TrEMBL record:
UniProt organism field: Rattus norvegicus (Rat)
GO cellular component annotations of the record: extracellular region
Listed name of the protein: RCG29619, isoform CRA_b
Entry-linked PANTHER family: MACROGLOBULIN / COMPLEMENT, MURINOGLOBULIN-1-RELATED
Domain called Alpha-macroglobulin receptor-binding: residue spans: 107-194
Length: 205
């Protein structure tokens, strides 16, 4: 055996280990090493050598994540609220109210993404006119969505409304989703849903 940097180095079987001589200064010496497979026939020879082993375990717990409060207050309604046409509502207005409830004084740019009900399309002129509002930088209309780009949102409620109309009759209409989120802080988000006033189960939020 030889001494190197204050350690006695040796080998036991197939595993190289670090050995410390015990004296008044090294009684509490501690070393960490990773052992491979050790031959059960291993023998260690040496004088005044003590072997201490420490086992380290890692415990992992499934800790439920704290449910975050939405960063936006979002309310979506239809006008009319209830069905006033026994043959179905061919067109109606969607009304949105949005305010910021996050940790900052105001949000960054916000996108309101309104998904269309199956068989309905937005009436483009009613969406385009929203760009006249000071806090709407632009709008985008697709077959299935209306996107409103807002400069920012504070705790002051902003209101928007536009009209959608039926393009193809669809039975058993399911609710459609409205998503509002901060463009740069995408974890700041809120969801709501709306239904046709003539749906069998009114699920406006």
């Amino acid at each position: 055996m030889c001494v190197c940097s204050g350690k006695m180095l040796g080998s036991c079987g197939y595993a190289a280990v670090s050995l410390f001589p015990l004296n008044g200064k090294s009684d509490f010496a501690h070393t960490m090493l990773k052992l491979g497979e050790i031959d059960p026939r291993t023998q260690c020879n040496g004088g005044d050598i003590f072997l201490f082993t420490t086992y380290q375990t890692t415990l992992r717990y499934n800790v439920p994540l704290e449910k975050q409060q939405p960063a936006f207050a979002l309310k979506v309604q239809t006008v009319p609220l209830t069905c006033n046409n026994p043959k179905g509502q061919n067109s109606f207005q969607i009304s949105l109210e949005i305010s910021y409830t996050g940790s900052r004084p105001a949000s960054n740019m916000v996108i309101a993404d309104v998904k269309m009900l199956s068989g309905f399309i937005p009436l483009k002129p009613t969406v385009k006119k929203l760009e006249r509002l000071g806090h709407v930088s632009r709008t985008e209309v697709t077959t299935n969505n209306v996107l409103l780009y807002l400069d920012q949102v504070t705790n002051q409620t902003l209101s928007f409304s536009f009209i959608i109309q039926q393009d193809i009759p669809v039975k058993n209409l399911q609710p459609a989703i409205v998503k509002v989120y901060d463009y740069y802080e995408t974890d700041e988000v809120a969801f709501a849903e709306y239904s046709s006033p003539c749906s069998s189960d009114d699920q406006n939020v």
